[in-house]
Amino acid sequence: MDFNYSPEDEAFRREFRTWLEQNRPDRPIQNLAGGFEQDEEDWQRKLAWYRKLASGGWTCVDWPREFGGRGLDTLKTIIYHEELQRIDAPLPFIGSGPSLVGPTLMQWGTAEQKQRFIPKIITGEEIWCQGYSEPNSGSDLASLQTRATEEGDYFVINGQKIWTSQAQYADWAFVLCRTDPDAPKHRGISYILVNMKTPGITVRPLVQMSGARGFNEVFFDDVRTPKNMLVGAKNQGWQVAITTLMYERGMGGGGQPLIALTQELAELARQVDRNGRPAWQDSDVRQKIAELRCEAEALRYTGLRNLTRRLRGLPPGPEGSILKLGGSELNLRAELFAMELLGAHSQLEFRAPHAIDDGRWSFRMLSARGGTIAAGTNQIQHNIIGERVLGLPKG
Question: Which domains does the chain have, with CATH numbers?
Answer without folding.
Answer: 7-94 (1.10.540.10), 128-235 (2.40.110.10), 252-389 (1.20.140.10)
